[in-house]
Design brief:
Strand content: 15-25%
Number of strands: 5
Oligomer: single chain
Keywords: Signal
Length: about 150
């Protein structure tokens, strides 16, 4: 008889602790669901805001750069340039017709400008040279190929 009472007590205690654990796990699951719903709502609001903005002429920079076959990437490596001249050159390149985006990395030895543009790298180099005569000339160009231009300043 004592064994039955002891086993019943242990079973009741175990079932109560299991119920509490299940309740705790349900609370965690509900919290995760609330966060997920809030995230989905924020995503929908962002998409709606982008659509409304495009109706009123607001341009999203990601949408203006169309992924076509006309877009090219050219990496311009410049050795021996100072940061001021590199920033000036980046500004000149950004203003050239057909340039979609530029990225700049400075290093005292070799700096890099990554340019997304339409047309060929040769046409890009010609357009840069017309506007950047004060920064470099033909004698500074080490090499150029489609997708790559190397300039040595010193």
């Amino acid at each position: 008889m004592n064994k039955i009472v002891l086993m019943s007590f242990a079973l009741i205690t175990l079932s109560i602790s299991t119920a509490k654990a299940q309740s705790f796990l349900d609370k965690i699951d509900n919290a995760i669901n609330k966060v997920d719903k809030a995230s989905n709502t924020a995503d929908r609001a962002s998409n709606t805001g982008g659509k409304v903005g495009s109706l009123f002429g607001k341009k999203n920079k990601k949408n203006t750069a169309k992924a076509t076959e006309d877009n090219n990437k050219t990496v311009i490596k410049i050795s021996g340039i100072d940061l001021t001249s590199l920033k000036k050159l980046d500004g000149i390149i950004s203003g050239i017709n057909g340039v979609i985006d530029t990225g700049m990395k400075y290093n005292a030895a070799v700096s890099t400008l990554t340019v997304m543009h339409t047309g060929s790298s040769e046409k890009l180099l010609e357009a840069i040279q017309l506007k950047a005569k004060s920064i470099f000339t033909d004698k500074n160009i080490e090499s150029f190929d489609e997708g790559s231009i190397e300039i040595k300043m010193k």
